Every structure is written in structure tokens, then in C-alpha cells.
């Protein structure tokens, strides 16, 4: 999410979301966001806090701006540190986005994992000097892009470096299903290179083997697309594809509630973030995964999901029942 008004935060609050991600895209040659970008981040973080929501700043690049040289990594880290210094008492910063995806990172799995490790470790050290209490989130892996091997290669890069201290505080995964018709209770299986919410035991084993420990886990993005009812089409643009896997709002509610219940009962999982609060407006290229239409009107899924989120936050969900 690139910006947030008070109205947007009010929607997030209605959904009982406790955290919200604010994004900033780094580009080659930049060591600081421009004044407009920095102002947007500061005002959005303030709007989140005013609504009782904790902001998470995500700094990342797209593949054509992959920071692969020492100089580029230094520029990226300085960019992130500038944001950290501009937002008082920032608690969470995420470094990189889906480095196992060619959309966001250039290079093969092993090369990408090594380069990403170097960036994350450098960012961790600098951010911690500026604010020892900040939580640095790493990984943010796409579940369906050879996530298993990327974790192994990330662990190999860590061991090769002989680093004797952490390089992230929280490991993040984006556990999207193969399509919106697949509920979170269905995993990818033991022989897949993909990882879903239902594959939690396997994820824990992978992290333990790769890193020698299992850090806290965040499900940093999860979303199920809904069909757009005819009466709401004026909120969108473009034509919806004929072969679409979107589900009903009732089904979205069932899957989001199930995801909340599963994550709340997985001991190492500390966060589950839905992507998005409201739908993107493009029917062909955007994601209709929100709990609100672009107009701000809530979907039928809002009430059950917000109730489940509240119960999870208050520790009222029963595990193993």
C-alpha cells in the first residue's frame, strides 16, 4: 500500500487490523526518498497511529533496480535509514519484497538469495544502530516461486558469511494459494517447492535446518479475490477476464476466518496481514482481495473477518478443538 488517508485507516480499523504496511520503492542512485515521498510516509504513519494501528514500513525495489553491488546496497540501506529516522518510534521495517520472484529481483535462486542476504544483513546492522528496538522483517517470499529452495540458499549464504549475530528479527512469507478457489486449509504438500499456511510444520523444519533456529514468522501478504457484483461495477475500470477464479464474498469470509484461526494456533506465527484493505480498481490487472469496495462500502465478508481478527487479538480463539 503506497499511501493512506484517515478514511482508509478508518476502514482498516473497522476490520480490526492491528498493523498496516506502507510501501516505499527504492530506485538506483537514490539515498533518500524525495520530500513528497517522505512526507507521504510520515503522514500515513501518523494516520495509522491516530487510528490505533501500528505502521509497518516496507522498502523494496523491482527487478530492474536490484541492488547487487556494494554501492547499490549502501544506497538502499541509507534510503531505508532515512525513512526510519523520519518516523518517530517506528517499530517495524521490512527489507525487500519477494526476492525469489523475477518481478522484484534479478538473478537465479542461489544468486538472488546470496545478494538478498547481503542487503538484509547490512540493513539490519544499520537500522539497529539507529533504533535498537526496531523489528527488522526479512524474506517476504512469494509462496509459489521456489520458496523452499530460496530458504535453503538464504541459509547457505548466512552460514558461509560466518556471521555470529541475527540478520533479521522476523521471517516473512506471502502464503497465497495457487488460486482463490483453494482454501488456506489445503497445503502444497511435502514435495512441492511452494509453501502455504497449511504447510506450517514444513516451514518450521526448513527454517530450523537453514538458519539453525526458527525466528518469529509473519504471513506478510494473504489474499482471496472476490467476484464483483453488477451493482458495484461502477467502482472499477476495465473488463474482468472470462476465466477468473474469484469467489463469493461469503467464501472469502470463510477463507479469511480460517486463515486467522490457523495462524493464531501456529506458535511461531506472530502476524497475518491481508492484502488489501480495499479492492484495486482495475478488474483486469488489479487484485479484488479487500474487505471493502473501492468506494469504501464494506463487503459481506467484513463482519465475520473483523470479528475473528478481534477474537484472535484478544486470545479468545481455541486451538486444537
Question: How would you describe the overall organization of this protein?
Answer:
There is one protein chain. The protein has one domain (6-313): Glycosidases (TIM Barrel), CATH 3.20.20.80. It contains eight helices and seven strands. It has helices at residues 6-14, 35-50, 70-86, 109-130, 147-161, 200-211, 249-264, 302-313, and strands at residues 19-25, 54-60, 92-95, 135-142, 170-174, 217-222, 269-274. Strands 1-2-3-4-5-6-7 form a seven-stranded parallel sheet, covered by helices on one side. The radius of gyration is 19 Å and the shape is globular. The two termini are 36 Å apart.
What Rg is obtained from the alpha carbons, in whole angstroms? 19 Å
Low-pLDDT parts are none
Name the quaternary structure: single chain
Topology as a string of helices (H) and strands (E): HEHEHEHEHEHEHEH
Class computed from helices, strands and strand pairing: alpha/beta
| Silhouette | globular
CATH topology: TIM Barrel
- Rounded mean pLDDT is 95
Distance between the termini: 36 Å
Classify the beta-strand content into a percent band: 5-15%
CATH fourth-tier homologous superfamily: Glycosidases
Return the CATH class: Alpha Beta
